[in-house]
């Protein structure tokens, strides 16, 4: 399968050899030497137009790719950005320095979470996420076969019922990434070069990010690196029950 660009993007992107580097986000991702293009079906709950707006808001606040263009055709939407240097944190070469990168991830999230909430125009609070989760369950969009071991064998409706029943009383709101897994952070030496896939970014409980970062470190490195991440971020800010809750919430997305 090759990348076919709509006319609006062909005018701004140079001819290039495009490599399909699609991951688990649900979108197809194509990469050339200098640019990245994401492609997904129109009508998804998380639109690439929204991600475009979030990238533009983040520019100058944290390191993110620059938006080159956005376009649609009859069935798909396309988001083109610059390609930034560095390795994703889950890359085998990056995992050779897992302890260092666990600390870098903690500091990158602290930097993001320190942005003024009042300046962020994107609401990803629990009320919004639970409404989206219910819609995804009702539309049959949840992959129950991909549930973590703790919820394997449960239905999406059962997980949703738990989330409603166990909803935390209060939210510790910050500007959160929303999908803070290792593939979404590019690292080079002692620096995080870029934050990627910001379509879920917005005002949310900090545990939304902490839960997914911890799980990603456990899967790609080990429990010791996950603990080092939490220690570096700051244990005094962490509620272990919320970590479990937000890991459960992610099952429906």
TrEMBL record:
<keyword id="KW-0808">Transferase</keyword>
<comment type="similarity">
    <text>Belongs to the aminoglycoside phosphotransferase family.</text>
</comment>
<dbReference type="Pfam" id="PF01636">
    <property type="entry name" value="APH"/>
</dbReference>
<protein>
    <submittedName>
        <fullName>Aminoglycoside 3'-phosphotransferase</fullName>
    </submittedName>
</protein>
<feature type="domain" description="Aminoglycoside phosphotransferase">
    <location>
        <begin position="26"/>
        <end position="243"/>
    </location>
</feature>
<keyword id="KW-0547">Nucleotide-binding</keyword>
<keyword id="KW-0067">ATP-binding</keyword>
<dbReference type="InterPro" id="IPR024165">
    <property type="entry name" value="Kan/Strep_kinase"/>
</dbReference>
<keyword id="KW-0418">Kinase</keyword>
<dbReference type="InterPro" id="IPR011009">
    <property type="entry name" value="Kinase-like_dom_sf"/>
</dbReference>
<dbReference type="InterPro" id="IPR002575">
    <property type="entry name" value="Aminoglycoside_PTrfase"/>
</dbReference>
<dbReference type="InterPro" id="IPR051678">
    <property type="entry name" value="AGP_Transferase"/>
</dbReference>
<keyword id="KW-0046">Antibiotic resistance</keyword>
